[in-house]
Write a structure and sequence with these properties.
The protein has three helices and four strands. The protein has about 110 residues and is α+β, with helices and mostly antiparallel strands. It has a domain of about 70 residues. A hairpin with a 5-residue loop joins strand 1 and strand 2. It is flat. The termini are far apart.
Length: about 110
């Protein structure tokens, strides 16, 4: 019984040690230089999920955002998802709605 307790204790300590080492991992160059600039797009009528920014040749930033209406549609993301297009003069915003690039089918599949 003491041997089992000793083995379990060693395994637990190793697990804790491994988790602490993960927390101490070195930050990448990219993560060190990230800076929060604020919320890019906000509309209480929609749930947003991910985005893809693209900068055009004149310097405008186009943001393509997956979204679906907040109203009670179950499951809204499968039936009502769309890719909305927003535009700003710079990557920091502020973004204004332009159009819907791709509209959902309204079907569950």
């Amino acid at each position: 019984m003491q041997r089992l307790f000793l083995i379990l204790t060693v395994l637990i300590l190793q697990t804790i040690s491994c988790q602490e080492n993960k927390l101490l991992a070195e930050q990448s160059f990219i993560s060190k230089n990230l800076e929060f600039k604020g919320i890019a797009v906000q509309d209480n009528n929609y749930t947003f999920w991910g985005c893809a920014p693209i900068q055009d040749e004149v310097g405008e930033t186009h943001l393509f955002v997956a979204r679906w209406p907040e109203k009670n549609v179950n499951p809204a993301w499968r039936k009502s998802s769309e890719i909305a297009h927003y535009v700003a003069d710079s990557p920091e915003g502020s973004f204004r709605f332009s159009d819907v690039a791709i509209k959902g089918t309204g079907l569950e599949t």
